[in-house]
From TrEMBL:
Pfam families: Proton_antipo_M (PF00361). The chain crosses the membrane at residues 6-25, 37-59, 79-100, 112-130, 164-186, 206-230, 269-294, 301-323, 343-363, 384-403, 423-449, 470-493, 530-550, 652-670. Keywords: Cell membrane, Membrane, Oxidoreductase, Transmembrane, Transmembrane helix. PANTHER family: FORMATE HYDROGENLYASE SUBUNIT 3-RELATED, HYDROGENASE-4 COMPONENT F. The gene is hyfB. The lineage of its organism: Bacteria, Pseudomonadati, Pseudomonadota, Alphaproteobacteria, Hyphomicrobiales. This is Hydrogenase 4 subunit B. It is found in: Cell membrane; Membrane. It is a multi-pass membrane protein. InterPro entries: ComplexI-like_HydComp, NADH_UbQ_OxRdtase, ND/Mrp_TM. Residues 129-415 form the NADH:quinone oxidoreductase/Mrp antiporter transmembrane domain.
Length: 671
């Protein structure tokens, strides 16, 4: 059976899991059985993806007699869809294993279990769809299944608002994709299959409109600024295993939609498209991490961090478009490989971090970082794996996040070869934004790990926390090891991405796995090279040597002295740094200009015996300048149009007569 057929059987398995959950209902066996079956099917899908990606068998297709009459439903598994299928199902396997333990604490499991499998099925269907109808149907199915998971805790008003915003943004994105496919199908003589659109001669204006619509439609699902507003609302609302899938996996399906349409179906590599995507990616990376630094809700911080990492991915994709438009195949392959490598990396470490946040929530019942602290003593294993995730997302060597960002910088350093002046100015500026984002990401996750796991507990819940169960720890440890392996042995990942680069950029990077000392040399030895394995062993050796020397040579005499207490002699958690105080310098520099930050300090008057109050308000400029005015305008218009429901019969007849006159004028002018 061809690989695409096996992929469809895996999708059927995911759908069957939803049926099993519905049949079992509230029985105690439902949670482990449903998530255990999800783990098995996801691992089978991982094997199918690896066979296609590494086996070199070529694309496989199948047409089912469903869908549009005379067209059917076309499904295709090639290198691009196989890579994203690997990303999706690797995240699904980890989330299923994690949820075997986490799901025991769900207050209403029947609001999650029946929709978990269909959500995974919807994401895989998008990756295999090879015609516009199947793609859009799968896209909407994925959105609706994930929406049910977002609003699973429906008793919280904030979750209902999150679900409404998510559904509105998803519908807007689908509308843009629908119009894009309509334009491409029209250019292809009404052929709605991707093969027919790919073979059609697309004019410059049609290609430009389809590209812009794809950026908006797929970017709304991926989380490009200013289309990101649903992420910080939906991700904290969902259960933690679903948050990991939404952030680490489903946003990558949005990236896949953009790559499939712009790189494959449209195939019009334009320098202006590269410029637009690069600038959008740079702005998204910088603003996303600034949003994250100012958060005190741990899951909300991670959601905004996803926005930053999606920006890094789109920087690489925009560079690939620009290089390919100018016939620089090697540079295009480098930029595309960097973007796809970061897609893989982000799916791993962001899932790990959301799992860690879920473990903290399970142990303490808190997501507010200001009420945590000291968890490294209560949850040492969770602290270690969470630290690995923080180091990975902060792009510290020798972990995987560093490699993909380093490759992106290598592609940026090749930008002087681009002939267009717009790109010559924009790409270095975006490189500076990427460097700023990398520095702020380091500060953001120093804050996250330090405030949550270090210092003293700030609440009784943190002081009484206990380590989570083995299923949750195993899932986190598995992802932590993947972060280490992908960072120390990146050549194998780059070589695995070679079929995708050849499919889209027509060129791939030279083979890397066979280089001496397993080094990574994307351009040339004289220009750049990286060896994560050597760095890894150096860090282990230097750390071990330092520990041994300190233990052997340090004095055994115990000396006691007063510690530095920042001027506060009280032994109280109140005197510690908080997340808000840690972020204050960054907030003072960027907050007022970029976010309209409002700080209010209410100090007690002389003689008053009450505590001072500090209130901080951070406003997302997307809501402040775009969606807020738009929503208010729609509301005002709806209120005015509502008067049309209360007209007299004479006014209704006059309105109908006026409408007829206008239509007649339009027809006359058209003719």
């Amino acid at each position: 059976m061809p690989e695409v057929g096996l992929g469809l059987w895996c999708i059927a398995g995911f759908l069957g899991i939803g049926g099993v959950a519905t049949v079992l209902g509230q029985r105690a066996v439902a949670t482990p059985l449903v998530y255990g079956l999800g783990l098995a099917v996801a691992l089978a899908a991982v094997l199918v993806a690896l066979t296609t990606l590494l086996g070199g068998a070529g694309p496989s297709s199948v047409v089912l007699p469903i869908g549009l009459p005379g067209v059917g439903a076309h499904f295709r598994l090639d290198a691009l869809s196989a890579f994203f299928m690997l990303v999706v199902n690797l995240g699904a396997a980890a989330a299923s294993l994690y949820a075997v333990g986490y799901g025991r604490h769900e207050p209403a499991p029947m609001r999650v279990l029946p929709f978990f499998g269909p959500f995974l099925a919807g994401m895989n269907l998008v990756l295999l769809a090879a015609d516009a109808f199947s793609f859009l149907l799968s896209w909407e199915f994925m959105s609706l299944a994930s929406w049910t998971l977002v609003v699973s805790n429906h008793r919280e008003p904030a979750n209902i608002r999150a679900g409404f915003v998510y559904l509105a943004m998803a519908s807007f994105g689908t509308l843009c994709l629908l119009v894009a496919f309509g334009l491409l199908a029209t250019a292809g003589a009404g052929d709605f299959t991707f093969a027919g659109m790919r073979g059609a001669t697309v004019g410059g204006s049609v290609a430009a409109m389809a590209t812009v619509l794809a950026i908006i439609g797929a970017g709304s699902k991926a989380g490009l600024v200013p289309l990101h507003v649903w992420l910080p609302l939906a991700h904290p609302a969902a259960p933690s295993q679903v948050s990991a899938l939404l952030s680490g996996v489903m946003t990558k399906v949005g990236v896949y939609g953009f790559v499939r349409i712009v790189f494959d179906v449209v195939g019009d590599y334009s320098s202006w498209a590269g410029l637009v995507v690069v600038v959008a990616g740079g702005a998204t990376a910088a603003l996303g991490v600034l949003y994250a630094v100012m958060q005190r809700d741990l899951k909300r911080l991670l959601a905004y961090s996803t926005v930053e990492n999606i920006g890094i991915v789109f920087i690489g994709l925009g560079l690939a478009l620009a290089f390919r438009a100018n016939g620089q195949g090697g540079a295009a392959a480098l930029a595309l490989t960097a973007a796809l490598f970061h897609v893989f990396n982000h799916s791993i470490f962001k899932s790990l971090l959301f799992f860690g946040a879920g473990a903290v929530l399970t142990a303490t019942g808190e997501r507010d970082m200001e009420k945590l602290g000291g968890l490294i003593h209560r949850m040492p294993q969770t602290a270690v794996v969470f630290l690995i995730g923080c180091m990975s997302i902060a792009a510290l060597p020798p972990l995987n996040g560093f490699v993909s960002e380093w490759l992106t910088f290598q592609a940026i350093l090749l930008s002087p070869q681009l002939p267009q002046w717009g790109l010559k100015f924009a790409v270095p500026a975006v490189g500076a934004l990427l460097a700023l984002a990398a520095a702020l990401a380091g500060a953001c996750f120093v804050k996250a790990f330090g405030v949550v796991f270090l210092s003293r507990p700030r609440s009784p819940a943190a002081a009484q926390a206990r380590e989570v169960d083995g299923f949750m720890l195993t899932a986190m440890l598995m992802l932590a090891w993947l972060c280490i392996l992908a960072g120390t042995l990146p050549g194998f990942v780059v070589d695995a991405l070679a079929p995708v680069a050849r499919e889209l950029a027509f060129v791939s990077l030279p083979p890397q796995a066979g280089l001496p000392w397993l080094s990574l040399v994307p351009v040339a030895d004289s220009r750049s090279s990286y060896n994560g394995l050597i760095i890894f062993f150096f860090l282990i050796a230097s750390g071990t040597t330092t520990a041994v020397l300190v233990h052997r040579l340090a004095s055994r005499q115990t000396r006691r002295g007063a510690i530095w207490d920042c001027g506060y002699p009280l032994d109280s958690p109140v005197t510690q740094y908080t997340g808000s105080s840690f972020a204050q310098p960054i907030r003072r520099v960027f907050g007022t200009v970029a976010f309209g930050v409002v700080e209010t300090v209410d100090m007690p008057r002389p003689g008053e015996r009450r505590a001072a109050r500090f209130r901080l308000r951070v406003r997302d400029p997307a809501w402040r300048f775009l969606y807020g005015p738009l929503a208010r305008g729609v509301l005002r218009t709806a209120v005015r149009l509502n008067r049309l429901q209360f007209l007299t019969i004479r006014r209704y007849l006059a309105l109908v007569f006026a409408a007829l006159i206008v239509l007649m004028l339009v027809v006359a002018i058209w003719r």
